[in-house]
Task: structure prediction
Amino acid sequence: MGNGARPWVLHVDLDEFIAAVEVLRRPELAGLPVIVGGRGDPTERAVVSTASYAAREFGVGSGMPLKVAARKVPDAVFLPVDAPAYEEASDQVMATLRDLGGVVEVLGWDEAFLGATTDDPEALARRAQAAVLEATALHCSVGIGDNKVRAKIATGFGKPRGIFRLTAENWFEVMGERPTVALWGVGSRVSKRLAGHGIETVNQLAAAPQELLVGEFGPRMGVWYSELGRGIGPAVVDDAPWIARGHSRETTYQQNLTTPEEVVEAVRELAAQAFEDTAREGRPVFRVTLKVRYAPFETKAIGRKLAAPTRARDDVVAAATELAARIDPDREIRLLGVRAEMVMPDGGDPAERTPVRGRL
DNA sequence: TCTGGGGTCCTAGGACCC
DNA sequence: TCTGGGGTCCTAGGACCC
Result:
């Protein structure tokens, strides 16, 4: 064989990342049900960030309300979220991956794509696992694919601590009979809309006429879902530094806000905080958006483009305050958020953007 | 059973202009 | 009295991800 080397996409995903970082600094917690979320108080309104595998055996998972988790595992260890600690561990992991010689595209605290040309992607995957373990004492799983979609989905079949390869060759064999919601980028809503057209499985999505999907989801998402069903997706791993389009601050109140005064005060505070995040980057704010969650769970967005881009805190706070007047004062408010956008939503050439969701 | 906080991107539809 | 077609910009809202 002259050279079987070809480009591969690896998706590296840390196992129970946040819980694992906590266990590293508190070894006595190893093997116990550990649940990290909110301020670590399971009586508060907050959700699970990560549960250790021991806790997952009781049915606890990310996104679950802490109160529910506590009911399932009353003697679990509940810990508060410590973002700086996870960022530090994450930085170490990413630096280790970069040393492997490929292109690293960071997706979040605990995952990254690794693009490399090799004739033995499994060997590279094992090297990545060993290097990360040695540098950080953290375990990870690796998905190998001929594009990002397949690599990302493959990782799930490798967990924990494993490696799985998913390519055009075994795509339908592995994914064909699975429900569409198993696809990266298809959630409960889209899977229900697909089911409305009789599309329940990946096989059925792959066979569906593209015009049908475009009619249902629009020109971009329709085409995207059609390709997703066949496992088709972008294969270019891009290590360009990530630049945030905007920053937001939001808070869920332990007691619902009930008076206009409380609401305005909260909005001003959140706006000032969101402004600080943008100011730190020295970029102007183009647009301000308010997010309101009325009890029990109805979300509204109220936004406005600024007359002129601004770098002044007072402008951002004033715009948010003005928008706050449109919040219904007769309803109970359980969450408020303010987002300051530094790039217009339609900024950039749409043709250059791939609708892969989930970038941190 | 009760739902975080940080993001990204897409679409529908109204306003406005020629 | 009845009533174009096309384009752009903007807001609201939806959906998804970690």
In short: The radius of gyration of chain A is 22 Å.
